[in-house]
Amino acid sequence: xxxxxxxxxVGITGSVGKTSTKDLTxxxxxxxxxxxxxxxxxxxxxxxxxxxLGATDDARFLVVEMGARTExxxxxxxxxARPDVGVVTTxxxxxxxxxxxxxxxxxxxxxILDGLPSDGCAVLNADAPDVMGQASRARCxxxxxxxxxxxxxxxxxxxxxxxxxxxxxxxxxxxxxRLAVHGAHMVANAVAAAAAGLFLDVxxxxxxxxxxxxxxxxxxxxxxxxxxxxTVINDAxxxxxxxxxxxxxxxxxxxxxxxxxxxxxxxAELGEHAEPAHREAGERAxxxxxxxxxxxxxxxxxxxxxxxxxxxxAEVVPDAEAAxxxxxxxxxxxxxxxxxxxxxxxxxxxx
Length: 351
Hints:
By secondary structure, the chain is an alpha/beta fold. Helix content is 34%, strand content 21%. It is built from 13 helices and 15 strands. Strands 2-3-1-4-5-6 form a six-stranded parallel beta sheet, sandwiched between helices. Strand 5, helix 7 and strand 6 form a beta-alpha-beta unit. The chain starts with 7 loop residues before the first strand and ends in an 11-residue tail after the last strand.
């Protein structure tokens, strides 16, 4: 399938933001040509081939998300997809229980750079030292994004629905962008997508339009408002310390007439980082919510940290069904609730 296509392939990896960056990049590239991207999080040894096989014969661009659980996984996926452009969103403490260390995570994400062609491009997060530490592996030009990058966002403003607007600045020019997706942390993903699009000759105006039109895969910063005013943020597909922090900031930035609640489930596969990560989540939640429901094996750590930080209303429950029972007692019209956990918690059932 890869040999049969003349499409340029964009491979996207990183500890956080892969799927959202994939969705945003596909929306940008689609402005100038037929574009096929993986659905949801089809990012492993099954999902990547399925993405290639699903492409139409006339596709101009393929956007492939690449995940990893052990060192060598990205190398294997690149052998199949052979990306022309490689994007690394960031390196964070995700799956460290499997990888063993943050350094191993960085090395693995950097594998996407090893096989890039000399006329390709490595799109790297300038604000992430662990990402930039892998830059020398690329034998092609490097294009950076982020606050310290060549492609960056300035004058970021978030509206009362947590949708960001910003001035996109780049070597190709500058333009105002308004995102339809929610969360200030989506700006970094949008800027990464813009960098990939600009390298692939998407005009600046089309980059901005594509970012404005982009929609995300299910259960990722999906903000829904019920007729009675209740707001639900369903970000329940996956979680690590960084994404939980970003989700809580999004909840805090929403204009809400009632109270704010969070349902936080386990962050899986963190190994020795699990206890401090869950404690930090509870401490962060304490100053941003009126009530917390902690779900799963690490719930006592999360809720205990929240109580220690001054949050009176913090419950520990074993599963999503029990969380639903508590929510039925708590939620009123005009409240807002965040659902956030690793996939195994299945918090999307609460929506």
